[in-house]
């Protein structure tokens, strides 16, 4: 399919001709613009002068009320308006396929855009491609409702049945992919709204939102996809990650897609060659089970939120929710030995409880179905107490973790108003929608340390971005890109230019090893972000330690170290390899290190001799 820079067709629901004229006067020469005659008030004959001035860049449409538009007049009147727009020089005149099949001819074939509006699940969907292909038109358009991953895969396959110039646009919850990656559907252009309040179709982004989503660059970008249930589109990920990727020059584009089942997720990954998935509920256990290799955090939690694929097949997974959570604890107080009350028992709740247990604390889950929670915890090997939801306020704790969907907006709050305030720290994983959630608002009133859902998301995102891109990102940088927009279409400016002098790689690696062997948690401020340091951090996690990102560096949780079951990747780090080789003396069994070229050819004879003298 086409790989040229996508063309944007800017549309708008303006009610006055003057407003349309203002839009066209400010247009980008690279854009097409659509005029919706059916939405305008007043004398439509006055549009002819405007079309004459801008016609080579215009798509003119006039949809009847019966077809979902705003034109109330007779069909002959509608056709006459379109014919006059064509005569005035409009590049494209949008005519529904039904009207063309009835013999309507309002513009020369080369300037007729034959359109079909429907639903991917309509009985007539499959046959619509043949109808459009048979139309005597210079281009075709399909505006199709798509709800989830399976609909997107079906729409892509259906597109192969069209020929010539086409614009295929998805409307609804899953439509963003078709609008931000139009080349994936062979589209000559994609439709975007001129601004807030001017959308003409469900799911239509504004022009500036589409540009921030990297639509112009999309043919050269690899998709990273967040999959989940119907609420996945509410994630800050697409806006924050795409702005971050653009600022850093990462050749990636982040999209959110709802899915009905895990099999549909895998079909989407195969159809679009997806290499990385972000995973949210209800698919975190599916993601974990699908992967042969699990990072230690995912292995302890029994769920994963980040998946790497090859050829459409999951091969490795990580859980960055746990590392983000423990980093939040390290930034707000003690991370080890806490007594946590976790509200909820879903995938996230159990994962965070596993983090508490790893750090030497104890956790209690409060939930509405203790039996199901006990079975899920037993399957994952998570040792926690479980109590019924109604008695949660009676459980002694110094850390309160909110991991249910309850945010208080519908009156159902996760913590009883009648419960005494206490002094427990609060972590709420629920993303705020309109101001703080009920639990965060109360914590702020009570004056206790609190981490809200957005701050939690940023912390897990730090680990996720580092994993997907191979490059670290600081809390301040990602938080700046994730900051809520002041207006629907007004993105806040990215963080100002800041020069950060990286920490010493040599000292970072030495402190990492010492911290992993210590008796308690250690904080490393401003560690080196280089690959040698991250390879050593990953290696220590494989051996049983924990290295979690904080606002200013890492918190290292020692954990009992154990010999690895597989070769430990060392990358090209000579210090990493030498330190791990020395650490191998702690175990009475062989330890294999995987060395990337050219590290394998560097002199290691002295190290080998020393190890041999020590009995290795």
Could you tell me how far the N terminus lies from the C terminus, measured between alpha carbons in angstroms? Answer: 57 Å
The order of strands across the largest sheet is 7-6-5-4-3-2-1-8
| SS-based class | alpha/beta
Question: How much of the polypeptide forms β-strand, as a percent range?
Answer: 15-25%
Structure commentary:
This protein is an alpha/beta fold and 616 residues long. 35% of the residues lie in helices and 20% in strands. The strands form five sheets. Strands 7-6-5-4-3-2-1-8 form an eight-stranded parallel beta sheet. The protein has a six-stranded mixed beta sheet with strand order 10-9-11-13-14-12. Helix 6 packs parallel to helix 10, helix 13 (320-332) crosses helix 17 (453-469) and helix 17 (453-469) crosses helix 18 (475-482). It is elongated. 50% of the residues are buried. The model is unreliable at 486-490 (pLDDT under 50).
């Amino acid at each position: 399919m086409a790989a040229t820079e996508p063309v944007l067709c800017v549309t708008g629901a303006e009610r006055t001709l003057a407003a349309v004229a203002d839009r066209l006067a400010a247009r980008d020469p690279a854009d097409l613009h659509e005029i919706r005659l059916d939405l305008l008030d007043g004398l439509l004959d006055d549009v002819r002068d405007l079309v004459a001035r801008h016609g080579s860049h215009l798509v003119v449409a006039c949809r009847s009320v019966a077809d979902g538009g705003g034109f109330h007049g007779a069909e002959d009147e509608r056709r006459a308006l379109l014919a006059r727009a064509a005569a005035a020089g409009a590049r494209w005149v949008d005519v529904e396929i039904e009207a063309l099949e009835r013999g309507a001819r309002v513009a020369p074939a080369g300037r007729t855009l034959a359109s079909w509006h429907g639903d991917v699940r309509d009985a007539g969907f499959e046959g619509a491609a043949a109808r459009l292909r048979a139309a005597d038109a210079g281009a075709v358009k399909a505006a199709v409702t798509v709800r989830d991953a399976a609909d997107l895969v079906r729409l892509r396959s259906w597109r192969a049945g069209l020929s010539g110039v086409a614009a295929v646009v998805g409307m609804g919850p899953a439509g963003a992919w078709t609008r931000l990656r139009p080349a994936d559907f062979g589209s000559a252009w994609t439709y975007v709204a001129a601004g807030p309040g001017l959308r003409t179709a469900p799911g239509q982004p504004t022009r500036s939102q589409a540009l921030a989503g990297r639509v112009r660059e999309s043919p050269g970008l690899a998709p990273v996809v967040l999959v989940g249930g119907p609420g996945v589109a509410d994630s800050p990920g697409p806006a924050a990650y795409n702005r971050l990727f653009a600022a850093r020059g990462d050749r990636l584009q982040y999209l959110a897609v709802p899915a009905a089942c895990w099999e549909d997720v895998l079909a989407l990954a195969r159809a679009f060659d997806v290499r990385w998935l972000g995973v949210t509920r209800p698919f975190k256990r599916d993601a974990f089970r699908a992967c042969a290799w699990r990072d230690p955090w995912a292995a302890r939690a029994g769920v994963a939120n980040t998946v790497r694929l090859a050829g459409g097949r999951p091969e490795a997974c990580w859980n960055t929710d746990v590392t983000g959570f423990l980093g939040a604890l390290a930034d707000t107080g003690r991370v080890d030995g806490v007594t946590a009350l976790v509200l909820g028992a879903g995938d996230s709740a159990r994962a965070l409880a596993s983090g508490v247990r790893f750090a030497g604390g104890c956790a209690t889950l409060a939930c509405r179905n203790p039996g199901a929670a006990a079975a899920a915890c037993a399957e994952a090997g998570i040792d926690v107490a479980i109590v019924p939801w109604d008695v949660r306020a009676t459980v002694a704790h110094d850390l309160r973790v909110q991991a249910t969907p309850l945010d208080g907006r519908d009156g159902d709050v996760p913590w009883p108003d009648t419960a005494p305030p206490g002094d427990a720290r609060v972590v709420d994983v629920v993303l705020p929608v309109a101001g703080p959630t009920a639990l965060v608002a109360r914590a702020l009133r009570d004056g206790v340390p609190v981490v809200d859902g957005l701050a939690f998301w940023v912390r897990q995102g730090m680990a996720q971005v580092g994993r997907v891109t191979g490059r670290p990102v600081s809390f301040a940088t990602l938080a700046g890109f994730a900051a809520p927009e002041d207006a629907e279409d007004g993105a806040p400016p990215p963080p100002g230019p800041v020069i950060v002098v990286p920490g010493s790689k040599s000292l970072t690696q030495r402190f990492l090893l010492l911290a992993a062997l210590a008796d308690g948690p250690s904080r490393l401020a401003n560690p080196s972000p280089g690959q040698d340091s991250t390879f050593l951090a990953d290696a220590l996690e494989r051996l049983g330690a924990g290295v979690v990102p904080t606002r200013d560096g890492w918190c290292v949780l020692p954990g009992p170290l154990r010999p690895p079951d597989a070769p430990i990747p060392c990358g090209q780090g000579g210090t990493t390899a030498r330190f791990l080789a020395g650490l191998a003396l702690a175990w009475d069994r062989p330890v294999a290190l995987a060395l990337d070229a050219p590290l394998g050819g560097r002199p290691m004879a002295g190290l080998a001799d020393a190890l041999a003298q020590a009995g290795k």
